[in-house]
Amino acid sequence: MADRYSLVLKGGRILDPRNGLDFVGDVGIFQGKIVEVGRNLDTSHALDAVDLSGKWVLPGVIDPHVHVSSWIGDYPGLRMMASEGVITALDMAGPPESVFANVKDHGSGMHIACLDAFTLGDKQKESLTHGEIEKRIAIAMEKGAIGVKILGGHYPLSPEATARIIREARKQGAYVAFHAGTTRKGSNLEGMQEAIQLSDGNPFHLAHINSYCRGYVKDPLLETFEALQLLKDAPHVWSESYVNVFNGTSGKCVQGMIQSHVTRTCCRVGGYAEDENGLGQAIREGFAFVTVLKGGINTLITGEEGYRYWRERGTDVTLSFPVNLLPVQIHLASAKDSEGAFIVDAFSTDGGGIPRNTMVRHALDLVRLGVLTPLEMARKLSTRTAEMLGLKSKGTLSAGFDADITVVDPQAGKASLGIACGRIIMVEGRVVGRGGTLITTEKGVSKVKEWGLPYQVMDPAEALPRKALSRKREP
Ligand SMILES: [Zn+2]
Fold first, then answer.
1. CA 267 – ligand 1 centroid, Å
2. Distance separating alpha carbons of residues 123 and 294, to the nearest angstrom
């Protein structure tokens, strides 16, 4: 008799928020799909079976905010994420050709989608025409990105150009994510407020809410409550927050000037001058951390060693500052609206190549602390994230869906097994997956095919809008 299952996961605690399932049972997998979930599946015709007693079985973890391009994060991120139990991730800056090349040459077997950042020369920032925006978005989609990212907080555009990009992205069926901030408002609570206004009811993904609650405008907890209220009043906005003390930004300086506005703010709040000298001092004195590749993974170093590396690289390195406060992280992770829905939709890391892929570990910590139930944790790590990104075949352990599964060890407090479309890609932190699957849209298929990797097609228009809502008519 032919094999009924290629793999059976036996005796784990099954957590499937979409179906409200929480019981000890088995998952049967065949040809990359889940074919059965139940008690005591017959394994006599299974090619392989794994005993998962004491473990928790979740729909494959999805990280909606990572960096794995040569520009930010780079290829080590692909293994760093997989080793922590992430199965699917969205690169938040691109460029797509670099992300896809990294998946091909250094992939860890994960599913990767990508946005293309709106980076511009100084002259274009104020005068970006509608035609230019139209063209930029169309090109990003043709290259295989599922949409675009506005890096306002780091490299601000005018409010008008920003609003135009969000509107045009929706028109073209492109996913659009925004790190709040324009030439008028910074990467803070005011920037967040402005971002929602500029969206004018058009759905978009507001990146890392924790970044706007660092105490730059008022007390960090007051900012957190206001940020949550802003999101409650804006049901067209999808959002994520990360659970880690470190942010991620750029150390690049040109003619003594720090390029990223986020880096400038971090220097200021640390009591350092907002220029190259001040930043150098912040690194030497242990306030700023430099991302350095060591033994195949990126790590954070500071002090003289970090300073030397920053100098050797001509300042163009990724930096992290310890600016995310724990109480803020916990509130954003757990706050719900009156209907019991999470106000911030998903967990993220803003990690990948930036070393803070702690989403699964810290989600388990929050369960241990009683902040989240195990099912709620699974919702924020996968189910809600799949809805947010419009990944219709993911986010649940239902029959017929992709066999994307993350197994966690609640005792050890971390992921212990990663499965992507039925293939084991990680065992006890060791990455065994190779290559990967590229996620793109219809518009990107012909370009993505050239990479010779498996691919999946999604439609960002199905992800957005978030809820049925009365929206203002477009002018
Ligand atoms: Zn980011």
1. 19
2. 38
Ligand 1: centre distance to CA 26 (Å): 37
Which range marks the domain in which residue 309 is found? 254-320
Contact predicate 245/324, CB 8 Å: yes
Instruction: Report the separation in Å between the CA atom of 448 and the middle of ligand 1, taken as the mean of its atom positions.
Output: 23
Do 382 and 292 belong to one domain? no
**So what's the pLDDT on residue 237?**
94
Strand 237-242 with 346-348, pairing:
parallel
168 CA from centroid of ligand 1 (Å): 22
Beta bridge partners of 424: 419
> What would the pLDDT profile of 240-296 be if each residue is shown by its tens digit?
999 888 988 899 999 999 998 889 999 998 999 999 999 999 999 999 999 998 888
- Looking at the fold, whether 38 and 147 belong to one and the same domain comes out as no
How far is ligand 1, taken at its centre, from the CA of residue 358, in Å?
Answer: 15
Query: 337 and 353, same structural domain?
Result: yes
- Verify that 94 and 199 share a domain, yes or no: yes
Per-residue pLDDT, averaged over 39-47, amounts to 88
| Residues 302 and 271 placed together within one structural domain of the fold | yes
Residue 114 lies in a domain: yes
Distance 149 CA to ligand 1 centre (A): 10
**Element spanning 263, H or E:** helix 261-269
